[in-house]
Amino acid sequence: MEDYGFEYSEEEQEEQDVDIENQYYNAKGLVETDPKGALAGFSEVVNMEEEKAECNLSPAVDDTDVPLYLFL
Fold first, then answer.
1. CA geometry: angle at 41 spanning 50 and 32, to 5°?
2. Contact 54, 32 (CB under 8 A)
3. In terms of residue numbers, what domain contains 35?
4. Residue 66 lies in a domain
5. Are 11 and 58 in contact (CB under 8 A)?
6. DSSP string, 6-57
7. How does 11-46 read in b/e, with b if 16+ C-beta sit within 10 Å?
8. Residue 40 located in a structural domain
9. Is residue 71 in a domain?
10. pLDDT by residue (tens digit) across 9-51?
11. Other Cβ atoms within 10 Å of 49 Cβ, number
12. Is residue 38 situated within a structural domain?
C-alpha cells in the first residue's frame, strides 16, 4: 500500500481511534435522553471516520439505535 509521503505514528492513529470511540459512546449515551443530540454526535463520528479514512482507509462500522424519525 502506498503512503503518499505521509508518516503517521501508531500513537497518532491510536489517539484518533480513542477520540472516535469516545465520541461514539458519548453519542450512544444520549440516544434515550437527547435523540437529536445523539444524531449530531453520530454525525461527528462519521466526520471523524472520514478524516481517519483518508489516512488509513479503515472506517469503523457499528449498529446504532437512532430513531428513524430523526432523519425525516
1. 140
2. no
3. 10-55
4. no
5. no
6. ----HHHHHHHHHHHHHHHHHHHHHTTT-HHHHHHHHHHHHHHHHHHHHHHS
7. eeeeebeeebeebbeebbebbeeeeeebbebbeebe
8. yes
9. no
10. 666 677 888 899 999 999 999 999 999 999 999 999 988 887 7
11. 18
12. yes
Query: For the chain, how big is the Rg over CA atoms in Å?
Result: 14
Enter the pTM of the model: 0.57
> Rounded CA gap, 56 and 42, in Å?
20
Extract the C-alpha cell encoding 36: 437529536
How many domains, the chain? 1
Enumerate residues 6+ apart whose C-beta is below 8 A from 20.
Answer: 45, 48, 49, 52, 60
